[in-house]
UniProtKB/TrEMBL annotation:
<keyword id="KW-0238">DNA-binding</keyword>
<feature type="domain" description="Cas12f1-like TNB">
    <location>
        <begin position="51"/>
        <end position="122"/>
    </location>
</feature>
<dbReference type="InterPro" id="IPR010095">
    <property type="entry name" value="Cas12f1-like_TNB"/>
</dbReference>
<dbReference type="Pfam" id="PF07282">
    <property type="entry name" value="Cas12f1-like_TNB"/>
</dbReference>
<dbReference type="InterPro" id="IPR051399">
    <property type="entry name" value="RNA-guided_DNA_endo/Transpos"/>
</dbReference>
<protein>
    <submittedName>
        <fullName>Transposase</fullName>
    </submittedName>
</protein>
Length: 137
C-alpha cells in the first residue's frame, strides 16, 4: 500500500516537473529546506508534497533541456514588497505573519497575495535584479 502511494506521488511529480520544463525558459525555486521543515508542524505536508524529489527532478530535467535552474535564498522574499522593493511596516512577519495570505504594502499601497509576491521576489533574485538590497535584520 505504502509503495503504491509513493509510486503514484513520484509519477505525479514527474508529470508536473515535465510540464514546467516544457513550458518555461528558466526555473527558480526557493531554497526551502525540507530537512528543516520536517522538524516543524508542517512536516507532514512537506513530506507528502515531496519537495526534495521535485527539486531533484527539475534540476536534471532542466539540465537535460538546457534550461536555467537555480535555487534562490528565499530569506525575506515573503516580507519584501515585489512592487516597490521595500520591507514595509505592514509586511507579514514573525509567527503571527505565517497565517496572513494577503497584505497591502504601506510603502506603495499595492496588495499582494503572499505566495505570488514571494514568487516574484524569487524570480527577481534569480534574474539578479532585486529593486533594493534586502537588509540584514
Ligand atoms: Zn510596496
Amino acid at each position: 500500500m505504502h509503495a503504491k502511494i509513493a509510486n503514484r506521488r513520484k509519477d505525479a511529480l514527474h508529470k508536473f516537473s515535465r510540464k514546467l520544463v516544457n513550458r518555461c525558459g528558466e526555473i527558480y525555486v526557493g531554497n526551502v529546506s525540507s530537512l528543516k521543515l520536517v522538524k516543524t508542524t508542517m512536516a507532514k505536508s512537506v513530506l507528502d508534497a515531496g519537495w526534495g524529489q521535485l527539486k531533484t527532478m527539475l534540476d536534471y530535467k532542466c539540465a537535460h533541456a538546457g534550461i536555467v535552474f537555480k535555487e534562490i535564498d528565499e530569506a525575506y522574499t515573503t516580507q519584501t514588497c515585489s512592487s516597490c522593493g521595500s520591507l514595509p511596516e505592514s509586511r507579514p512577519k514573525g509567527i503571527t505573519g505565517l497565517g496572513i495570505r494577503e497584505w497591502t504594502c504601506s510603502g506603495c499601497g499595492v496588495t499582494h497575495d503572499r505566495d505570488i509576491n514571494a514568487a516574484r521576489n524569487i524570480l527577481a533574485a534569480g534574474h539578479g535584479r532585486l529593486a533594493v538590497e534586502i537588509p540584514v535584520l
